[in-house]
Amino acid sequence: MQFRSGISDPSGEPAVWDVITMDKPLNGTPVRTTVHTVPGRESLLTKISDLQEEIGQLQEAIASHAVIDQAIGVVITLGALRPDQGFEVLREVSQHTNIKLRQICEHLLDWVHSEQLSDEIRTALDKALAAARSSEATPLPSAVSAGRQSGRTN
Known about the structure:
By secondary structure, this protein is α+β, with helices and mostly antiparallel strands.
């Protein structure tokens, strides 16, 4: 007689099983004699499944955050903007093109390497950059302004 225990997921949901198999039944064929769930294990498996899903979401969020940060860098360099303005430009492009923010960011990062950007995104980006530049509400600090006028930077 053999006893096995495990976790299987044939239907997409966690399942716990314990099987007792007879190695040498009378007719020579192993027979599954008992299958039952062990009390308390199902709640643990549900918790494990929930935690695995949460881990996946957090991993995706971290990757998404990195892509967005890199795209902000591209936009602030391209438009000579502050980081908060870079994010607003990306948000505006996303809203005007009806494309998710992360996808806009991925397109911009691809554009840096391939030099190809769809006309729709390029147009929205140009408009958002122009709007961000024209709404520049924060003047440069006096020391930086003086350095630029004299050709020096501090």
